[in-house]
Specification:
- About 40% of the residues lie in helices and about 15% in strands.
- The chain is built from eleven helices and eight strands.
- It has an eight-stranded parallel barrel with strand order 1-2-3-4-5-6-7-8, surrounded by six helices.
- Helix 2 (about 50-55) links the parallel strand 2 (about 40-45) and strand 3 (about 60-65).
- The protein binds 1,3-dihydroxyacetonephosphate.
- 1,3-dihydroxyacetonephosphate binds near residues 97 and 214.
Length: about 250
């Protein structure tokens, strides 16, 4: 049985007070209404991590960060290390989000280093992959995803990656209101699981949670989550409203 995860990536949103209010609403809703073992992961901006983390007094509500630096420590002004995130209470870290790839030039070689540093600090990486609109229109999406998966993960052993989570986020579906159809998402998730099986073996591939991200909302979540290889969601916009986020979690049957 794979873990079911719904992670809320707040991106660069919410003031300190707004972030605390959102986190406590989610925890309260979770306590009152969620009777499954779906794991919620709140992923606020760095500066809110410690304070949000202190509010998360439910075993199934966890804390994550949106990025980390690839080096362990040192003279990297303005950066945040994996060990700092871990000591601040984060369990997860998103790496390779398409916005980091697009706006900060992050690519697989760098991301492999970040994954290694995150793992060494005891963080569970949520490694994001996904094709652009042009790549899908040119029918290159499988090649792109294969090179993103292989390019960052092939330097690791299955043992090293036992806490890995993958998120498939088609760039054309992020923040656009366009969601991949459940069939399109399932097709790519099965493809990713097959890549993992070829490289790391069947038992490993069956254990890795693969989340879908891209305009997930309370209306489309149930059908996406009903697919065999979709183990949850990485949610942007809809994670900024406690009611929507909880309704997405409740979409798991
Ligand atoms: P939206 O849910 O706003 O499309 O964002 C998805 C995403 O990028 C989560 O990491």
């Amino acid at each position: 049985m794979r873990k079911k995860i719904v992670a809320g990536n707040w991106k660069m949103n919410k003031s300190f007070e707004e972030g605390l209010a959102l986190a406590s609403e989610i925890v309260n809703f979770y306590k009152d209404e969620v009777h499954s073992d779906v794991e919620a992961v709140l992923i606020p901006p760095f500066i809110h991590l410690v304070s949000v983390g202190r509010l998360l007094d439910h075993p199934h509500v966890q804390l994550g960060a949106q990025n980390c630096h690839q080096e362990v420590s040192g003279a990297y002004t303005g950066e945040v290390s994996a060990a700092m995130l871990s000591s601040a209470g984060a369990q997860y870290v998103i790496l390779g989000h398409s916005e980091r790839r697009q706006y900060f030039g992050e690519e697989e070689g760098l991301l492999a280093k970040k994954i290694r540093t995150a793992l060494a600090a005891g963080l569970k990486p949520i490694y994001c992959v996904g094709e652009t609109k042009e790549e899908r229109e040119d029918n290159r999406h499988f090649d792109v995803i294969e090179s993103q998966v292989e390019g960052a993960l092939s330097v690791f052993s299955a043992e090293e990656l036992k806490t890995l989570v993958i998120a498939y986020e088609p760039v054309w579906a992020i923040g656009t209101g366009l969601t991949a159809s459940p069939e399109q998402a399932q097709e790519v998730h099965a493809f990713i699981r097959n890549l993992l099986e070829k490289r790391f073996g069947a038992s490993f591939s069956q254990l890795v949670p693969i989340l879908y991200g891209g305009s997930v909302n309370p209306t489309n979540a149930a059908e996406l989550f009903s697919k065999r290889d979709i183990d949850g969601g990485l949610v942007g916009g809809a994670s900024l409203k406690s009611r929507d986020f909880i309704n997405i979690i409740q979409s798991f049957v």
